[in-house]
Write a structure and sequence with these properties.
Layout (H helix, E strand, L loop, with lengths): L1 H27 L6 H22 L2 H20 L8 H20 L3 H15 L2 H5 L6 H28 L4 H25 L4 E3 L3 E5 H22 L4 H29 L4 H6 L4 H5 L2 H15 L4
Antiparallel strand pairs: 1-2
């Protein structure tokens, strides 16, 4: 816990420094548009608050804070979908799956936690549309809802299971994961915006470049090497591999959700622009890094 407090303190100081520098630059260069960076700084503070609750307090408070994060992420995802009256019931069922998923986490039932959304919710989710006699847009509605549940609930809920799987190291592993994911995102964003030239997938996310991705992999791996002894019980090999795993899976998560957003918001460019700096953009990487890192660690180490 002491190492987690020190890590959070360093992150807090770093955010304060970034905030002060940003305000100074903004004051001196009034003619430039800093709206994207401003919104990103605000969301970093919000994420910092959420994960302070998830790391420093008892598991129940941590679960509640992460459950709220899942709810708002799913709500924001649903706001992008073109919905009909028949979809309201299926959304209600989707929201109800959040407390049920976290109940499995609370009682430590790993088997049900890992199959509830991928299996049982997947099989039962069409029922609200069938009962509502809605056939138009049935497949798009059900499949889009299931995608949202898999990413925003199933993926993110793994953050809560770390502390259940290992009460000693769980909170520190969550902090380690979140720090590396955010470092990767920040490095990728900054390098892609100011230095990058070769776009990875221009049609889905024109902001991501190969220069940003490669620099994010290198920087995240370096940060992982220096922080793993303080926050995790991992050995040297996995201390280095963690940076690679998290940066690459976070990159895939960002691209995947970028494609989803563009598909759901075809023809609504104004709405798409308004969501560029939403909290959904801050958790897209975590929706991938959380389960991937969790299951790799669980497979290779007995402490999970």
């Amino acid at each position: 816990m002491e190492s987690a407090i020190w890590t959070l303190f360093i992150i807090f100081i770093g955010l304060v420094v970034v905030n002060v520098l940003f305000l100074q630059i903004k004051r001196k260069q009034r003619e430039k548009d800093f709206s994207r960076i401003s919104l990103r700084v605000k969301t970093w503070w919000g994420m910092f608050g959420v994960f302070c609750l998830a790391t420093l307090f008892n598991p129940i408070i941590s679960m509640l804070s992460l459950m709220v994060l899942c709810f708002f992420s799913l709500k924001e995802y649903f706001s992008m979908m073109k919905t009909r009256k028949a979809d309201r019931r299926i959304f209600l069922w989707a929201y109800l799956s959040i407390p049920i998923q976290f109940y499995w986490i609370y009682i430590g039932w790993y088997g049900m936690f890992i199959v509830f959304i991928p299996v049982y919710v997947f099989l039962l989710l069409p029922l609200p549309r069938l009962l509502g006699k809605g056939t138009l847009g049935f497949l798009r509605s059900v499949s889009s809802t299931q995608w949202g549940l898999m990413l925003m609930v199933f993926g993110l809920s793994h953050l809560a299971y770390y502390q259940v799987a290992n009460p000693v190291y769980g909170a520190n592993l969550v902090l380690f994961l979140v720090v590396l994911t955010q470092v990767s995102d920040i490095e990728q964003f900054v390098v892609s915006i100011y230095i990058g030239k070769r776009k990875v997938v221009p049609t889905s996310n024109p902001a991501i470049t190969w220069e940003g991705f490669l620099s994010a992999v290198l920087v995240t791996t370096g940060v992982s090497y220096f922080t793993y002894p303080f926050l995790t019980p991992l050995d040297l090999k996995f201390g280095i591999l963690s940076g690679l795993i998290i940066s690459i899976s976070g990159f895939v998560g960002s691209l995947t959700i970028s494609v989803l957003k563009r598909d759901l918001l075809i023809g609504d460019q104004e709405r798409l622009a308004s969501l560029k700096e939403s909290y959904l953009n801050r958790v897209d990487s975590l929706a991938y890094t959380s389960p991937i890192f969790f299951h790799i660690i669980r497979y290779y180490f007995d402490f999970m």
